[in-house]
Design a protein that fits this description.
The complex is a heterodimer of chains A (226) and B (93). Chain A is mainly α and 226 residues long. Chain A contains seven helices and two strands; from the N terminus they run ββααααααα. Chain A has one domain (5-225). Chain B has a single domain (3-92), classed as F1F0 ATP synthase subunit C (F1FO ATP Synthase, Up-down Bundle). Helices cover 89% and strands 0% of the residues of chain B. The radius of gyration of chain B is 21 Å and the shape is rod-shaped. The chains are: A mainly alpha (226), B mainly alpha (93). Chain A binds chain B through residues 1, 3, 66, 69-70, 160, 163-164, 167-168, 170-171, 174, 201-202, 204-205, 208-209, 212, and chain B through 49-50, 53, 56-57, 60, 63-64, 67-68, 70-71, 74, 78-79.
Chain lengths: 226, 93
Amino acid sequence: MHLGPDDVVFWQWGFVKLNSTIVTTWVLMAVLVGGSHLITRKLATGLTISRWQNLLEIIVGSAKKQIGEVGLSRPEKYIGFLGTLFLFIGLSNLSTIIPGYEPPTGSLSTTAALAISVFVAVPFYGIADNGWRGYLRTYLEPTFIMLPFNIISELTRTLALAVRLFGNIMSGSMILAVLFSITPLIFPIFMTLLGLLTGMVQAYIFSILATVYIAAATRTHEPESK
Amino acid sequence: MDNVTLVAIISIAVSGLTIAVGTIGPALGQGRAVASALTSLAQQPDASTTITRTLFVGLAMIESLAIYCFLIAIIIIFANPFWNHVVAKAGGG
């Protein structure tokens, strides 16, 4: 029994491996980038816009609104990162309706990479907003006694982000595999339906948690600037 | 009963116990969270977006505990480090 898309190896040359995770991730990235490029090639501002432009406007508009509601006052600055996280995780979880597809988010390597990019983005945006001193002061937030706990929480929440997404998606595909061996006719459909729901919820939660972390790192300066 | 059988029995029993005991706490916590969220929604339907978003984030936090237990159970069954150790020892000795 294989535990995830990491075990499906297409091509191997010594240390270098080309497994299902990498291939699926690149295909998804190509779909996202190519699709966005095709749609944004002819944008219209008139009364009639193409239906694909309408779709993108809905996605971008609601993402901006969500980011603004969490507490980041200028969503345009962060939507490039947070929106990409949401779209990639969402597409990779939704594509499970394609037969034979294995979601790359069901591999710990992918989710760890996404969580590490959040781990890097939090100090990046914090320093860009507050400067080095302002960002480092957030570690001493209530009192200086909390310094070790703040550092530990920085590491554990990265681990939790990675393991939460991985565990949810991996458990979904594992339950499907078990159900296929027991009742292959109808029940896997319902579990796939549930998997689609949890996949979207997990994509939402991953990006909203990243937003909350970035908002916590950038917030200290905001009341003074207003 | 030799060591290999003993390790197998204990691993299977413990992985079942992990998921059984480990989901009790998160289940109670999620039940309480959803119940109070529904109460707040009934009292203040206007604040539904904020309540729903906070509820989802909180549920994800609580759920990750159950997910950790599930991962431990999976590791004990499919990637048990003690199992490999015992099998290697039995094969070698």
